[in-house]
User: What shape does this take?
Amino acid sequence: MSPDETQSIQSEQLVQLVKKVYESVPFYRKRMDGLGITPEDIKSIADINKLPFTSKDDMRETYPLGLLSVNQSEIVEVHTSSGTTGKPVVDAYTIDDIDLWSEVMARTLGMGNITNKDIVQNAFGYGLFTGGLGVHYGARRVGANVIPISGGNTIRQLAILQDFKATALTCTPSYCLYLAEVAEENGIHFTDLNLKVGFFGAEPWSENMRKEIEKKLDLKAIDIYGLTEIIGPGVASECLEQDGLHIFEDHFYPEIINPDTLQPVAEGEKGELVITTLTKQGTPILRYRTRDITFFRSGSCACDRTHRRMNRLLGRTDDMLIIRGVNIFPSQIEEVLFNIDHIEPHYQLVVDRVNQLDTLEVQVELNEKSFSDEVRKLEEYERKVEKDLHTALGIQAKVKLMEPKSIQRSEGKAKRIIDNRQI
Amino acid sequence: MYIKQISVFLENQAGRLYDVMTVLADNNINLRALFLTDSSDFGILRLIVDKPDDCLKVLKESQFTVNITNVIAIEVPDHAGGLSGVLKEIYAADLNIEYMYAFVEKHHDNAVLIFRFESAEAAIKKLKDKNLKIMSNQSVLAE
Assistant: This one.
């Protein structure tokens, strides 16, 4: 589909969407009235920047079903975020929404050439979390054999991987590395397994972490993107070119804005991703501020898909650390760490404030093979990491070597930051 | 002629040394010498034990980060200038000491010092013709 055709469809959909939410969602009617706009002001997709934003706080304040746009009887399923940082956010799906979700997740799996001949071991958590069921619906749509093992129970994951010969794995990138570690402890070699592709998402990860995963699990690692507020996974995905994520913009309209001015950034500049659900029925969302930082990739993809691409996430605005005036995302630190021998691909960042200055301690695990009985050598490793962080990112961090396997492993999203600042 | 030394990586965390000693006790491994060194972040525990290979195995099984290095035990006369005489020979052999520590017990009337050189094998070659009492594994462990 050409960009013009896509835009004309998007325009039509946006006009319908705005009418619908204005009539059926008091929250959006109030917002639009507040801005002095009516549905008649929205004539094409170019008018989208007249519309109000939706924030995570808005979604919390309307918890649980304040953003519902259909009769509650039409809802067939709900999912929520974990709510670890406050009230959870809710996505309520009609039967058409589940159909849409299946479609975009089937596309995601198709990006990695999954067909009905494949066996998908789905280690995303099943339940209120969208990861498990999202992949499940997509795999069903493709006709693949889905193994709904859910997250955790790592020894069993490995046994099932061996016994059922999964060709694809889906989980968070941090859990995938933990799986690799437990496999190694148990003498299981991924080269003996049938995995050819993995779909990883639900947390930001770096290009070097991808390399590590591909090396350790002997598969092609695909970055997938989505969020509960929009639909769950299935908003965007890399293809096998691994050169940016194609956004499924026929359903999810992306904008990138400057989070301070709220204006669109110049083409190719990085900013906060904002998404409008063009076709979702249950809880349609106008201009959701994802807090994820990325930029639009220019040019066309070698795979010939025409959907616009965004760069893999650089981080989240709320994960951003400001260390002595330098803005930094954990994924940038990860990128540096994964290039260094002597340390394991597990890390934790401890942020504190001493005498009004933010300090960063980077805890890394010593690689067992690099252990030396000489203090000097181990201290050299620490200095090496500190120097690389400073060279690459301009930050002064204190590096602390930890015992192998001492940093807590995660079965879902990894907790990378411990913030001890009292502000 | 060299002695096997076990080194253990320890995070600076309460109880870690106790954890190591408990593993050794449970496996009936007897300590001959021990030296703990630390930086601001971590420590390295160096051990001479009666059963080094077993010790390496059980510590690894208990998830400790461990390695084994060859060191040299040299008898040092227990009088003023004793160590100086030994160091003079080492210096004459053009060897660098990475670190050293002492046994608690004496061997006959001599003190026993453990020396870590870059390579124990190379060091023994250079030291064997010197006027030094390099101890065998058996005599170190026989105490």
Summary: Chain B touches chain A through 21 residues (CB under 8 Å). The mean pLDDT of chain B is 91. DSSP finds five helices and seven strands in chain B.
